[in-house]
Structure formats: structure tokens, C-alpha cells
Give the backbone structure.
Amino acid sequence: MSIVRAMNISGAEVWPLVEGGKGVAVSNGQSAGAWASAGGVGTISGVNADWIDGRGDYVPLVFKGRDRQERHDELIAYSINGAISQARIAHDLRGNEGRLHLNVLWEMGGCERVLRGVLEGARGLLHGVTCGAGMPYRLAQICAEFGVFYYPIVSSGRAFNALWRRSYHKFSEWLGAVVYEDPWLAGGHNGLSNSEDPRQPEDPYDRVLELRNTMRKAGLDEVPIVMAGGVWHLDDWSDWIDSDELGPIAFQFGTRPLLTRESPIPEEWKQRLLNLEPGDVLLHRFSPTGFYSSAVKNDFLAELTARSERQVAFSDEEDGENGRTAFFQHGRAGRGVWMSNEDLARVGRWQGEGFTLAMRTPDDTMIFVTPEDGRQIRRDQADCMGCLSHCRFSNWKDHGDYTTGKLTDPRSFCIQKTLQDIAHGTGDSLENQLMFSGHNAYRFAQDPFYSNGFIPTVRELVERILTGR
């Protein structure tokens, strides 16, 4: 017996259970097709999906372009082919059950080109598009043109109101639902604003009620809200289900589908998820997007944290007013910068520990790294393939003069490189890669469903979720 009732989503009665989209080859056709086959909403990631050719073989992503613009165009073409191939796989597997959605990030490089290319090439295979990481004002128009429903991802009623007033009210018939993503609990990139404290989580009920009231003012009383971030057992949300105050509510699961037999992530990653403890996921701001994001604590995040801690403010001229009266030789002979005496002493200690290379940031600070790490940072910046619309790590921008006009930021990292490596089990070990996860991932170790290392099929997972537990 199910704790929830079927709901109309993207034109069909399905279970109000949505597979969360996880980018760069993680939410693929196999997992999405299985989720839809079980009666829910499967989600294919349109963020650099793996391209599977007509013979069923994986086509590796190999760049041949000589510069960023050429590599950027190659990445877009690959992404379109990849997402179309995954949509075909999911469509074949769903057996005319459930619904299939495409997930894209508005801040990914060439998002509109990818979205239009996939919707054109996968006509009739996809029923909706979820989109977050930015303010996707043109999402509604694009989806309406292709006759698919759109699902904006927001973290506040204020954000949805801005989208509605500027654009979405013109295409209200194609608004499938609004996804509320808890910015303190969701995995991956989160929508924390500058006015919100990352250390002070807010009650999702109050924020979703604010969103519902905003939607009611727009006449959207019956449009569902999809609760995303922190969802594990439906029993935990019993007061949300059939709530007159909140209206129709569906639930999105991003982290739990990682641990299924259909999930394409490497076995080592699955085993790590089974052994996490409370507090093992960090909400941080190292991403080159500039957004907050949540990932498993490991050596990769520890190094980024330490890198930012080895940071001092400086001036190019002596600045007694701000206490920068100590000269630090930097660059060509006789050149240097000015900093406080306290910071100069810290720099001396770091250099004694081997962190001898100073690297400037866009914020009039410099960090100190080993020469080896510095060479790797510069190599990764030079290899940029334009995966984001704006990248603070490499100063890439996907339009205009192709530069943000700012210094590259060595406190960040190449997100395309690490996500490709961890998804395919290549490159450095799991400890040295970005491992996105929701903050509830520690519940794998506590949930008896996963006892003795049990990894379910997607169907077994969906059936379990429907019981409430």
C-alpha cells in the first residue's frame, strides 16, 4: 500500500516520486528509464551526458580543438548527441510507464544550444525539463516551442516570483511544477542567496508555504510543488502529504538513486556512500560557478579548504592605513607587494612548509601552494573547454569576448575534469575527486533497507519509498 497517491505530472498519472538529475554521466538513460518503468518520473541529465552510439558503444569525450572556443563547441555537440542517446535508452526501458524529464543547468556553457538541440533530436521521447543553477528566464519559452513541460528549480518564493513576472506568466499552460530545492540539504549546487547564512538552516515547511502563497497569488493553486533536498523516508513528510495549506506536493530523490544497481557510478563510490556518517558532507563555496554546493568531505575538499586558508590580502603599493607596511618580494627581481607584518610572518611559515608559490586571486589576495600544485592549477586552467557560462577558475565566458574580464581564481578547480573522472572511475582516486552528495547520505548506513551492503534495483527502491519507509 502506498503512502501517496498518483498525481498528474507532465500529462500522465504517475507516482509523485521524481528522480533528481545528477550531471555529467550520473543520471543516465538506464537509471531514468528504470525509474519511469516503476511508475515515477525518471530524469536524464543533459549536463555532458555520455554518448552511446547506434551499436550501443560508449563514445569517449576527446577534445581536438586548439583553443577554448573550439573545445566549447565540441563539448556542446557531444552533449547534444549524448543526451539524445540517453533519452532513447530511457524511452525504450520505460515501457510506456511513468514520465521522462531532462535536467539542465542554466549556468552550464551553451545551455540554450544544448537544450534546443536535445529537444529537437529527442522529439516525442521527453515530457519535461527541469532547470536550476541560475535564473532561467527563457526556459518556459523554449519548452513551449517544443511542447514539453518545464520545471524551474528555485529555493525561495521570491526567486519564483521574479521568473513568473518576467517570463513564465506568458507560458503558464506548460508549467508542470515548481521544484523547491532546500539549499542547506540538497546535493550538488545549491541556491543559497547572499542574505542567507549557510550555517543556519531554515525550516523547509515555512519556505515552501511562502512559495505556495506566491503561486496562489498567480492563480497556480493546483500546480504541484516538488520538494527536493533532504527527502529520504516519506513518513518523515506525512504532514506535507494531502496538506490543504501546501497544496499538491511531489518528492524528489537525488541521493538515494545513486545507490541502485542501475546507477552508473563506480562501485567504489557506492561503497563509500554505504559508510558515511553524519557531518561527512560539506556545504562549501569552492565551485567555479560561484554557487554553494554540497559534497562528501575527502582529501579533495580538504586541499581546497587549506588552499584558501593559506591566503593573505595585499596591496601593490604601501598602505599604512590598512596596515600593509611589510614588503614581500614577488615576481620579477625587485618587484613585490605589501602586506601586514602578521601576514608576512604567516607567509614565511607556509614557505617553510613547502608552499612557496604565490598565486593572485581576483579579490586582491594571494594564496600559497606548492610549485607542483601551482603547475597543475595552471595546466587545468589552460585546458578549459568552456563547460560553464561563466567560470571563475579559468575566467571563461561562453559569449561576447569569451572572458569574464577577471583574473583566474586558483582557489577553485576544473569542475568538468573532476566530475568526468569520478563518474567514469578514471584519473585520481575517489579521495581526490569532487563527490557530490546530499547531506542525508549518512542515512544509507543507518537505514535497515541497506543492511549487509544491500544495493537495490531502481524498482525495489521505488517500491520501498512508496511504503513510507
Q: What stands out?
A: Residues 7-279+440-466 form a domain with the TIM Barrel fold (CATH 3.20.20.70). The chain is about 30% helix and 15% strand.
